[in-house]
Amino acid sequence: GYHSLGSSMYLYNVSASIAVSVSSKVAFGAGITFAFPYTDMAFVRDRGLEACPVASCNVEDPRYAEHYHIHNNDFLNLRGLSLNLGFLMTLPNHLVVGVGLVSPPAFLDTSTLAEPTDVEVSGFTGNGQDAYVLRGKGRIVYVLPSTITTGVRYSLGAATDVMLDFRWQNLSRHSQYDVRLVGPRLRGGGVPEQIVRYRNLEDTFALGLAVEHDATSRLRLAARLGADTSAVRTEDVSPLEVDAPKGSVSLGARFTLSETFKVTAGYTLGHLLTRNVTESSYSPSAYRDCVASGYDYDVCQAAREGRAIPTAAGEYARTSHSFSLGLTLSWW
Q1: In degrees rounded to 5, what are phi and psi of residue 199?
Q2: 201, 172 in Cβ contact below 8 A?
Q3: CA distances from 112 to 29, 107, 176, 231 (A)
Q4: Dmax over Cα atoms in the chain, in whole Å?
Q5: Across the chain, what does the average pLDDT equal?
Q6: Distance (Å, rounded) from C-alpha 156 to C-alpha 152?
Q7: Residue 183 has pLDDT above 60, yes or no
Q8: Coil, strand, or helix at residue 112?
Q9: DSSP state of 310
Q10: Distance in angstroms (rounded) separating the CA atoms of residues 311 and 288
Q11: Full-prediction pTM beyond 0.85?
């Protein structure tokens, strides 16, 4: 729980775009996406660790575990804008090439997203018997990546197409969640004004190969193989950041009910390679070293970055199953 008690971040987008055909073979597109982020974060702060070395250390002692629940309280408030650009060209020999760019969701005067939040902090007093609950307000500040996607489609015949796609995301922009906490009850209860949740993500690259085939005049089938690099280094893996090199297999179908209605369905099986973390970036001793040094700037680097918490060493693995169902309406 010192890393996560179940955290999630969603980004809901509303887009408006326009496309223009320069010729029968070239088209450009542009659009704006309105971003509405929603973050729900829960974790434990180790008050026993933070008492070291002034008092006797009680690292990972449940009596000194302070629970934090921080979640967005203003979901409908616009938090950022993204610019979308696209280019499509039809080449000889049934070859189509496309490139797309999505900028990071933010405003022109800042590169960050800031979500207003409600904060609830709970735990036990020093004797471990009396419970308390503190409430206040807060803000979560972070940055999101830009994305570049390229793709190639080649027609093997009238009924079959082969697609190859590549995606890059500069996730290395996102190094942390900067959590700010305010309110008289929080201050009076000894809750810090700032808590940093370490991420230190890396850029990711994804490659996919897909085939689509018209089984009948109404039914189109699809299959795809995908591979992605990891956004998290082995030593940075934690319950908050579970990632690894991964692969996926997808199956899909589109059924045309009429000229107006089409139904699509899909299934994806994804698997992350097992990660064995033996030398974790997180270490509770880093906090004690920081205090013992008189808060020397260099010695306290791990504490500043949010890594001076209990270790995240262990074995991590994950398999995912995703299902999708969609309805397309076309009036012209």
Answers
A1: -130, -55
A2: yes
A3: 26, 8, 11, 19
A4: 77
A5: 89
A6: 13
A7: yes
A8: coil
A9: S
A10: 14
A11: no
